[in-house]
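Q: Convert this sequence to structure tokens.
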Amino acid sequence: MSHYTGPGQYPGQPNPQWGGGWMPPPAPQPGVIPLQPLSLGDILGGAFSTFRRYAKPLIGIMLAVQGIGILVVAAAIGVTLAVVQDLISAVFDLAPGQSPQSDDVLALLLAFVPAGVLMLVAVALGAAMISALGASVVQEAVVGRPTTFGAMWRRSRSRLPAVLGVLLLTWLIAGGPMLLLYAICIPLIILSASAEAGPSVVMSVMLLGLFVCIPVTVWLMTRFSLASAVAVCEDLGPVAALRRSSRLVSGDWWRVFGITMLGYLVAGVVGYLIQMPFSFVGAFALFPALAEMNGDTTDPSALIAGFVVYAIVSLIGGVIGSLFQYGYPQLLVTLVYVDQRIRKENLAAALLATAVPAPAPASAPAPDQM
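A:
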């Protein structure tokens, strides 16, 4: 039986006289985050939820990107090794006491320059693709839309040039003070090598310059940290995305910096914890071979097999751990971008208008149908 609880009070309503009070309804949450200004827990948890719910396209595309990059670089190195066999013999296959010719050493080093450049290009393209992928997935995750490997691959690839431009400009602008410092100090160190106190003075100036340049670099990196998400979510070019990121971060630099650094720290710790079991399994496979080492009676085949198993298991653990270490920060940074727009531009209303509606509860059958 229900009881009267006071003037204007009905069963089920909080009584202000006993410490209760009206509570606003919770913010709508069609996806991985509530559509309101986000707390630190909302952002960290939302990035975890996004990684879990969209694991198939995320992991699949990251594996494809890494695999393509490794194959291309390995092919370039293989072609280079096949071309420079004579140079390798001239440098390494020498009689005892004989030194290689300086021209052969220089030619061998120059032969691997194209492969090194190709590796840098592959790393830059891979980083840009993963950044575009993280922003593309979060676009769907915040409104609860499902997606597929193909859809995310096409979306990320279409924004790859813009995101690549953002990364290159960010590295160039944020790293500009450091590059300028090295460009001035390293030649001075070389030229002053003959002087007695010259190099030490230049090194002191260089260290002082580093203390000045590092804070500037960190400040610029944080100002531009949301530019990749801007380039994907708002279809802007590199320069416009950098300007837009700077405006979104303005006034909240410390908050954006702190959350971003915490996200990278969480990614590193979780990635390490993922790799640990694989390292233990590989070590257990290697220990029996190491324990049986007994001078000349040791079976080298068992030792080699143990090292091979250890290397393979550790490599698998490293790849799995790196998927989280690379993917999680990109999801988190995009959620920071969403949060900044919710706070400054009321993005929540626009997101709610495009959200996937929740399924309607099943209606109870009529009495005559029971």
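The mean pLDDT is 82.
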